[in-house]
Amino acid sequence: MKTTLLFLVSMYLISGMAVAIAQTQVLTKTVQTSVTNKIENPATINREITSELNTVTVKTVSITNITDVTAWATYSYKSQTGMIQHGVCVSKGPAPTIQNTMFFSKGVGPEFGAEITGLSPNAKYYVRAFAKNSTGAVFYGNELNFITLTPKK
Predict the structure, then answer these.
(1) Which of 52, 68, 110, 129 gives 149 a disulfide partner, CB atoms 3.0 to 4.6 angstroms apart?
(2) pTM higher than 0.85 for the full model?
(3) DSSP state of 2
């Protein structure tokens, strides 16, 4: 009887320690991620651990107040991690990136506004909102386009 009891107590302790060790390994596992919505930026993701912390949503909401040389872009972004930079990027061709001209926020969220200046009259422009995190990953929103006005004579 003592042997059986000793055996059961030993098994209980061993299984409890195994569970504790397994949980500690999972809880202290560090995951480095670099997730973007662009294919040319590699993503390193540990498939065993999923997290809401990597969710970033960027949206180009509207382009308004269009003149012959300026416009106003409204955008939003949501992220559970800190972004170090956000705004809109503008180009005369589709799919503008931060390598093109950037304009930064003039306001406080959840929707931000950016004044786009230095435009040419009667020209088509493409605009996308962006948000950049501390690791350098850039997340882009949807693309909108507009045509500046022809100057009044």
Answers:
(1) 68
(2) no
(3) H
Note every long-range contact of 90-95, with CB atoms under 8 Å and residues 24 or more positions apart, other chains counting.
90/116, 90/125, 90/126, 90/127, 91/125, 91/126, 92/123, 92/124, 92/125, 92/126, 93/126, 94/126, 94/143, 94/145, 95/126, 95/128, 95/143
Task: Evaluate whether 138 touches 38 at the Cβ level (below 8 Å).
Answer: yes
Helix (H, G, I), strand (E, B) or coil at 142: strand
- Beta strands (DSSP E) in 27-123 are 56-64, 71-79, 83-91, 101-104, 111-116
Place of tokens 């926020």: 105
Q: What is the pLDDT of residues 27-68, one digit of tens each?
A: 444 444 444 444 444 444 443 344 445 678 999 999 999 999
Question: Please, what are the domains in the chain?
Answer: 52-147 (2.60.40.10)
